[in-house]
């Protein structure tokens, strides 16, 4: 199948180029970039220097089966007609089609230009709503921090340990790739290295996704830490009724034992005892684990993903695989590395 | 005044050697280390290569005015008689004399050998209990994560915004120096770089200090992140009554405006808008700030320190300065650097 | 084909497990580890937590087609008979069979127990001696720093720009994974982060490989820098006769244009203008580039690899592919990531 | 004495503000910044948040004793009259007055506007030319990479081990602070972390300083590595005559034993055996060491500094101290930290 990547010179776009190029069923026929038009893909993404493909103007879209849009929030809603003219299936990685209600865009974003399309879009977090994806033609890949949070909490809802009225604090740590490729003073190496920087103390946009898809209000705070890829969500949960370790293992195994991209990691031996972004970096895996704090009637849930993969490009390809009835793991087999850096 | 550092080859011991050597009123007459006996201080601490002092056996303590003990938990309680024979004032940086009740040592540590001395010790977090320190002869410097947490929450108690019955979640991020100089697989650069690693999901020992000195139960979780020095505590607080930004500024200014080592940082401009370990690295400053999340009736408090300074060696010297009636900032004037690394 | 990894819990062993598990023609039937016997492979290598395989005792080798030995220097020479009894083809990743002369082992290592086997072994740096590998039964994969250096300089010899009498200074920068998984004080995160540390100022063992396979004496110095994977060799070369940029492009294209794992990068645009370990991290690619310093009659050659891949495990699999007549890139298709960390 | 910092919002300017503020004999009366006019110094430099000083317009210079100019290359030569009108002594940290010959500016920079002033300026690398500094009114602080290189090689000239005709390769590794505070894509954390990036393969401007002040042509290459502060110069030297370790110790001790800011580190024990930027980070120390490679008739010299201190702001204050006959170490007593990050 023919595939195109719109917004190919950004970090997420580069990851999509890599995944589509290595996919057994997709052929990368176009990658667009205004800034790097006519330059090779490798100019922006050195890991792809061996690719024989040049960026083209996004105004000249090729006809393809699937178009992946890796553009900033607000762009896809403007160009959605062109995208849908060019492709049978559009997988959008921005927030533009993630929420079903236009009012949420008024509250968390700058409104929405095409609210009538929101009902047509399928949110893609396959562990949550896989059944809606086969045959979908407009897919909105879930956001990175929302994905990490939802994957951590979902089994608690599926097993009725949480009902939606409880208090949940989500303390997220993210890497610098979430800030994108455009640079800036705060993103400079000298300022950004080694930080624990509160960058979204309150009111983060991903609250809207979590609230929408789990049906619970969350207290959400995001910190920038010194890694490049990775999002780690620590969810401090206070269930109304006591819960045992056995209940928790039952819940998490029940939700995830057949999932190809979720691994449980809860207090085993070795250096990596709980979920860590390093353990999944470069892969489409999510890791989820938990611990009980009986003294405080608290449950601590850890969830870790690579924000560029399970949190965006990998999730998008996963969704496209399901939409077309392909093997879910096609093109997503890379397992990550050990040891690995920042990651 | 003559000063000695017991346990001088560890990270905290090295920081004490540096501070005492640069202190206008103290003379560093002895630094002990079994492992490095007869080697220069610079052998263990390259920043002190210019110092003309060799480590000596801790069994041969010199007579001094003040002895700083930077030994692992459990050591000071065994050797406290020798320490007190050698010195008029003992400043212990371990947990051995921080808690007033022996029962807390049974719960959080491996019990206590000399419970009769606990009542004689003064806990040293000067912003909390400065008045108890002048003339003290046994001082227990507060722990790093407890210090960061207490400094963040203290004004809320002093201004009666919190009473002690509220729910508080403290999500702490720490650097690798907290693990000490001894190395090990999990501490190796290849495994430890770039992590967000839950290392104390529940039951961390510093809960005991926070609970003891603030009178509140806290839900406490610690993550290792990629920095070397630094502890950052994010406190998610749910007050019973609504609180305004003005209330908060009043509370924090009221508690800290005359404090020489506390800076407020709450949403100003520039790259460093909230407290960050990088902004205080190498200094004895703590930074404290806050943000309101009205939607969730939540208050988020950020607190950042250098765990080697305000969280241990700097706090110890600060306490000794007060104990002896010296200028509180003597020997602690270094302001930290910008830009700076990990930090 | 059945494959085993001996020494599977080390960093290189883990990389081999990953590569063999993902290889279309190999089946990973055994991974040995004394330290982690009966534990899962994921216990040591968190990226492989999904693998259903436990480490076994190296004394109980399974019968396989190919055995990869990722043991410390000196181990393979002791166990080579057992390895060859168990496998048709042994690919050794240590230095034990890299050099043809026993005297070199006396000079650079601790001698050799089985010098009679040295003549049977094929050194595996496919770009140098691909023709010797088909059908080989004892293969010695080239060392990481030697591989980077040889790949940088080889075209200069193949194009007769260097004859072997010239002065060559090689200044190498390496990551912490070269030190292995065993930890230790100097390898601890607190000591190892952010370093530029001369760790082999003179007399590095890889001098022997470079000298043996290029026929030139080199002045070789290695620095540890803050990355985990990666080796970067900067070769300062002083040719006897003037050389032009055109000569150099001719030489490097001539040597490498058909090589599947070598990319040229010499002063193009973008952020990554010359070879960098980050651009190849996680992949089996090497990048090579150069610049002329006419004022000093100097040629500067840059060469970058991932020491865990092109510098060890990837090179070993590449060699096995050639030995068995498989597609050279089988199992080695991962292209690396962008952006990526330490790397 | 009254002091001003022109260009106070850059990295070097911030370091000057810190040093002048903490100096026993200087009073910081002005810091200028166009970009941050009327904002506090702490807005740009979070380590100085406690300072009660706001940036002012560089067009309104106060009358001071000493003016430190931390402006980009080319600015000081334009404003030198204004600087000299405002201050008795101008210490310029740019390259504008480092070289005595205007022709060198034509070759390595964009020419020079005020060549008639070059003869009035004193180059400030105190270990090289301390005697010229007392009473100097226009001082040009040496460049970071040149300082590291010259300090490494100077004893070899002073002891007649080098004459100036030998071959010298200098391979320098630098941190991200050398790139300044302005950011940009290549400087972004995601792209810059974990690099070994050749950024000045040939023709670096500091060649001119080294050549001018040591009288030798050098082959000079600079790599960016993952640290923030720090410059490490590895000098590969090929003396014409054999040299012994004793000769070298004699040379280096002879040159540096009375220097307050130079420490020798050559193969001692512990983790930090040779000069490392980490060991001097935050301090004005330089570390110098060496090793002999008899097999290649090579001498390897290592030199490490903090580029923000001994490589710029610290060197400038040191020079001002000498110019005014103050204690050379006044305001420069901070010894650096252990352990420390990037550094």
From TrEMBL, chains A, B, C, D:
Function field: Involved in both the arginine and lysine biosynthetic pathways.
Assigned keywords, A-Z: Amino-acid biosynthesis, Arginine biosynthesis, Cytoplasm, Lysine biosynthesis, NADP, Oxidoreductase
Catalytic activity: [amino-group carrier protein]-C-terminal-N-(1-carboxy-5-oxopentan-1-yl)-L-glutamine + phosphate + NADP(+) = [amino-group carrier protein]-C-terminal-N-(1-carboxy-5-phosphooxy-5-oxopentan-1-yl)-L-glutamine + NADPH + H(+); [amino-group carrier protein]-C-terminal-gamma-(L-glutamyl-5-semialdehyde)-L-glutamate + phosphate + NADP(+) = [amino-group carrier protein]-C-terminal-gamma-(5-phospho-L-glutamyl)-L-glutamate + NADPH + H(+)
The protein, known as: Putative [LysW]-L-2-aminoadipate/[LysW]-L-glutamate phosphate reductase
Pathway(s) where this gene product acts: Amino-acid biosynthesis; L-arginine biosynthesis; Amino-acid biosynthesis; L-lysine biosynthesis via AAA pathway; L-lysine from L-alpha-aminoadipate (Thermus route): step 3/5
Cellular compartment(s): Cytoplasm
Location of the region described as Disordered in the Swiss-Prot/TrEMBL record: 177-199
Record's keyword annotation contains Metal-binding: no
EC class of the enzyme, as a word: oxidoreductase
Keyword presence, tRNA-binding: no
GO cellular component, one term: cytoplasm
Molecular function terms, GO-annotated: N-acetyl-gamma-glutamyl-phosphate reductase activity; NAD binding; NADP+ binding
Residue positions of the active site: 144
InterPro entries found in the cross-reference section: AGPR, AGPR_dimerisation_dom, AGPR_type-1, LysY, NAD(P)-bd_dom_sf, Semialdehyde_DH_NAD-bd
Enzyme Commission numbers on file: 1.2.1.103, 1.2.1.106
GO-annotated biological processes: L-arginine biosynthetic process via ornithine; lysine biosynthetic process via aminoadipic acid
The family this protein is said to belong to: Belongs to the NAGSA dehydrogenase family. Type 1 subfamily. LysY sub-subfamily.
Annotated NADP(+) binding sites: 9-12, 307
Annotated Semialdehyde dehydrogenase NAD-binding domain residues: 2-136
Entry superkingdom: Archaea
């Amino acid at each position: 199948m023919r595939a195109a990547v719109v917004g190919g010179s950004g970090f997420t776009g580069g990851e999509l180029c890599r995944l589509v190029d290595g996919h057994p069923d997709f052929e990368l026929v176009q990658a667009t970039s205004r800034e790097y038009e006519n330059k090779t893909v490798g100019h922006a993404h050195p890991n792809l220097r061996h690719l024989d493909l040049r960026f083209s103007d996004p105004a000249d879209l090729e006809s393809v089966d699937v178009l992946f849009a890796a553009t900033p929030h607000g762009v896809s809603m403007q160009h959605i007609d062109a995208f849908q003219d060019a492709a049978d299936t559009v997988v959008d990685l921005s927030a533009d089609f993630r929420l079903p209600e236009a009012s949420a865009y008024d509250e968390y974003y700058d409104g929405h230009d095409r609210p009538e399309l929101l009902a047509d879009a399928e949110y893609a977090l396959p562990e949550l709503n896989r059944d809606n994806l086969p045959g979908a033609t407009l897919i909105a890949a879930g956001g990175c921090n929302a994905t990490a949070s939802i994957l951590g909490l979902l089994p608690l809802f599926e097993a009725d340990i949480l009902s939606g009225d409880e208090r949940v604090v989500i303390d997220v740590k993210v890497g610098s790739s979430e800030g994108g490729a455009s640079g800036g003073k705060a993103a400079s190496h000298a300022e950004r290295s080694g930080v624990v920087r509160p960058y979204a103390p309150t009111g983060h946009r991903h609250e809207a996704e979590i609230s929408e898809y789990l049906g619970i209000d969350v207290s959400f705070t995001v910190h920038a830490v010194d890694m490049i890829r990775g999002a780690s969500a620590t969810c401090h949960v206070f269930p109304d009724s006591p819960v045992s370790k056995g209940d928790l293992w039952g819940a998490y195994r029940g939700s995830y034992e057949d999932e190809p991209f979720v691994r449980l990691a809860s207090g085993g031996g070795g250096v990596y005892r709980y979920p860590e972004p390093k353990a999944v970096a470069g892969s489409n895996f999510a890791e989820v684990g938990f611990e009980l704090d009986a003294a405080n009637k608290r449950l601590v849930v850890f969830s870790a993903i690579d924000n560029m993969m399970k949190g965006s490009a990998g999730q998008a390809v996963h969704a496209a695989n399901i939409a077309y009835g392909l093997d879910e793991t096609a093109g997503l087999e890379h397992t990550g590395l050990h040891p690995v850096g920042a990651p």
